[in-house]
């Protein structure tokens, strides 16, 4: 099984676990399965008090049995050598909230996720997409400014962490340019604690 197929399998397993978790919280949810809405950045619908919330679940499945303090939000990537807008600023996405699923710990001794029952515990941080984009703009990091940074990083091939004046790297975050993936994405890597402190995010679970 290749990496892509393995990722898909783990996502299905995780979704099963999450559906049970949402049910235990008494939430009325609807898992999105059609590709059109999934491409619009909707994995889950939560129906509450006459309102439907559109959720994009983002999970750190490559970091099982670890609790990272940061999460990366995609700014741009390459597809067939064509530069594309990442999901954070993609105007075709209908996402209202990101559910960041981190700290995925498996039951004792397990190193790979094969079934929902393998999961011991995890964390879910809910991030308001609108508030996040607005806060970045307040810091001087609107879409156009970040695009300027991205162009500089790509032209200079400045892979890895990149420190910028608008962000305190110890408290807020950095830009990260990934070399080893074919898409060579550039992400803004933000500290979860900072997002919580700024009330852009809430601890959902």
Describe this structure in words.
This protein is 28% helix and 34% strand. It is of the alpha+beta class. It has one domain (3-203). Strand 2 (44-48) and strand 3 (51-59) form a beta hairpin. The two termini are 32 Å apart.
Q: What attributes does this structure have?
A:
205 residues; alpha+beta; 28% helix
The helicity comes to 25-40%
Reading the helices and strands in chain order gives HEHEEEEEEHHEEEHE
Q: Can you summarize the main beta sheet? A: 6 strands, mixed
Radius of gyration: 17 Å
Mean pLDDT: 96
Which sequence of strands runs across the widest sheet?
1-2-3-6-7-11
Task: Give the total of domains.
Answer: 1
Regions with pLDDT < 50 over 5+ consecutive residues? none
Number of helices: 5
The portion of residues forming beta strands comes to 25-35%
Extended strand count: 11
Task: Write a compact overview of the structure shown.
By secondary structure, the protein is an alpha+beta fold. It is built from 5 helices and 11 strands.
Topology, please?
Layout: H1 3-24, E1 28-31, H2 35-39, E2 44-48, E3 51-59, E4 70-79, E5 82-85, E6 97-106, E7 119-128, H3 129-138, H4 143-156, E8 160-162, E9 173-177, E10 186-191, H5 192-197, E11 201-203
Parallel strand pairs: 3-6
Antiparallel strand pairs: 1-2, 2-3, 4-5, 4-10, 6-7, 7-11, 8-9, 9-10
């Amino acid at each position: 099984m290749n990496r892509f197929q393995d990722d898909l399998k783990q996502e299905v397993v995780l979704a099963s676990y999450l559906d049970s978790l949402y049910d235990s919280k008494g939430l009325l949810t609807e898992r999105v399965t059609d590709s059109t809405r999934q491409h619009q950045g909707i994995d889950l619908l939560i129906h509450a008090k006459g309102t439907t919330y559109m959720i994009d679940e983002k999970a750190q499945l490559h970091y099982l049995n670890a609790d990272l303090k940061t999460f990366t939000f995609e700014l741009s990537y390459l597809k067939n050598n064509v530069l594309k807008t990442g999901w954070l600023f993609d105007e075709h996405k209908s996402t209202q909230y990101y559910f960041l699923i981190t700290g995925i710990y498996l039951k004792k001794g397990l190193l790979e996720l094969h079934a929902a029952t393998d999961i011991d515990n995890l964390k879910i941080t809910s991030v308001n997409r609108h508030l996040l984009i607005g806060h970045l703009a307040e810091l001087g990091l609107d879409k156009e400014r970040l695009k300027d940074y991205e162009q500089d990083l790509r032209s200079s091939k400045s892979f890895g962490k990149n420190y910028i004046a608008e962000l305190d790297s110890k408290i807020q975050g950095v830009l990260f340019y990934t070399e080893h993936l074919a898409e060579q994405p550039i992400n803004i890597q933000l500290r979860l604690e900072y997002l919580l402190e700024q009330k852009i995010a809430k601890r959902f679970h």
